[in-house]
From TrEMBL, chains A, B:
Record field: compositional bias (Basic and acidic residues): 226-258
Gene3D superfamilies: Nucleosome assembly protein
Superkingdom of this protein's organism: Eukaryota
The name this protein goes by in its record: Nap family protein
Cross-referenced InterPro entries: NAP-like_sf (IPR037231), NAP_family (IPR002164)
Biased composition (Acidic residues): 289-315
Pfam families to which the protein is assigned, alphabetical: NAP
Amino acid sequence: MAADEATKPPTTYEQLAAIEDDFDDVDTEILRLQYKLSSPLYNRRQEVVSHMNNSERFWPLVFEQVPEEFEKFVQPTDSELLSGALRDFNVTRFELEESAEAEDSKGEPRSLHFRFEFQANDWFEDRVLEKRIWYRHAKDGWAGLISEPVKIHWKKNKDLTQGLTDDAIALFQARSAAGDMMKQDLPEYQALVKKVESWNGANTSFFTWFAWISSRRYVGAEESAQAEKETAERREKRKQGEQVEDHSSDKVVTDQDAEVHPFGEELALALAEEVWPAATKFFIQAQEAADDEMSEAEFEEEDADESDEDDEEVSPIDIPSLVKGKKNKHDENGGPPKKRQKT
Amino acid sequence: MAADEATKPPTTYEQLAAIEDDFDDVDTEILRLQYKLSSPLYNRRQEVVSHMNNSERFWPLVFEQVPEEFEKFVQPTDSELLSGALRDFNVTRFELEESAEAEDSKGEPRSLHFRFEFQANDWFEDRVLEKRIWYRHAKDGWAGLISEPVKIHWKKNKDLTQGLTDDAIALFQARSAAGDMMKQDLPEYQALVKKVESWNGANTSFFTWFAWISSRRYVGAEESAQAEKETAERREKRKQGEQVEDHSSDKVVTDQDAEVHPFGEELALALAEEVWPAATKFFIQAQEAADDEMSEAEFEEEDADESDEDDEEVSPIDIPSLVKGKKNKHDENGGPPKKRQKT
């Protein structure tokens, strides 16, 4: 094996790497196409939900039924708040929307926009909380999701994030003013790092996520545009058979000491790829669970009072099976093949 | 909650279910588009690999590096055979290829064709083993992957499947002759069930997979066409707001007592969705592992004999980082969002 190594034409590897680059482009294009094809269906779903009798219960029920992996992101008080006050939820890929308006077919499909609508509640003044997350390129070759901290107007003594959201915003503003988004020589930096340290990644509120920035460090639009250009140039050279330097020896710079949410990216992807697409399934599951509880209650009631004749079927059609049939179909055949995976 | 139930217009649920049907169609269409966009890249990859100096080592190295989940499907003797004799491997979605030739844009993208090419070896006479797997619809509403057992011409006393592949073929032929693919009143059925039982799902050879039929039961082309038509009609009614019966109360009929490979579908999907797309990554990992071993060997040699001057770099370019850079990129940003999941 290893003896062959020296005799191999290096271009073979450059060629394989160039093909992998093109596979990445296919993945990105597939995301664009998927958004284009599924957006009208998400809109129809929102429309149908808005006409339901208990439409205000749809999203709270969905969030109650989300999968176990999601539960670690949500504390009991968060659940109480979401269950009581969440009224609408929406996920869009805003850079695709913007590029469609500009008739540009190459918008970035990985950037996400989350919109939560709340009714008046005891915790904060906001009726809408929105978070934008950009897919950006860093000058060291990294590319990934980054965001900016979002202000939540907490009511007095009701801040579920224990000041973390406010402190993250204070640092972001101080750094913006200083023109250096990695600046550490700031009182806001020291304060936030100390608080994050004492917090130690435990007991993070769902709402701390609104202040999440990145799994690595903030990357601005300008740096991203420049880095994307350089990556494209490197790829073009590689395609021409040239050997190109990559960034694998660069020192990795992170800002994680000041990051308030350790799983911000994971949570964003769970919301966009699990909760949002499977909302109907979760809603039906919640109905089913409610029916089960109901039947049990009826049974006990009946047991106690035999004269109760009023035990007609609560749900006139077989609601759960409508959507559960689908679940079985997917589970047993392994579902539609997953997208191409390279990692 | 449950008290609201009786007042809900049933059409809301029919509408939500109809939207879920349309999401399924989008998933299927996305698979078609993904195949169309990525096929030329897979062809280029095969072309580049075929011109490598050690091209005959490519697939054996890939199969050595596949992820842990895959290892349970491959016994040590299988590994020996694959490592020594596998020469080429290819996965296509043959119903898409066929429909493209017929200028039909609606081919089934979930059907798979696997082709393994071998050099002369001690185990079997075949130089090519091919397995086709169809995505088919059963009359009870189930839809999923099914296949037919594939003959392997084992050399004397070399059958790694201990006769399971031959017995599966014998039963398939007896049932075909009888015109009943579920017939149990056959000596071939009794023999196979007994053998499967004694086998108890343990120690299954990779090659037993060639005789795998289904995670449920065999479904022929005729039944599938009829069932698909009925499903489409039900969906159309549902879209028109009609309440439709589903099959959730049907008795599930399986043929698993006579199924020779308990994880046949899982293995097919692992080959098609993990091994095939990520082959370049696995190959590079294998090179890297070989380099590491080499360096260690050199280091020890050097240690023993200080006069050895011949320790130049084996790999003139940074091969691993070419593709590993990608890996980091995907890992750290969570990769491109996964496809819409509903199960």
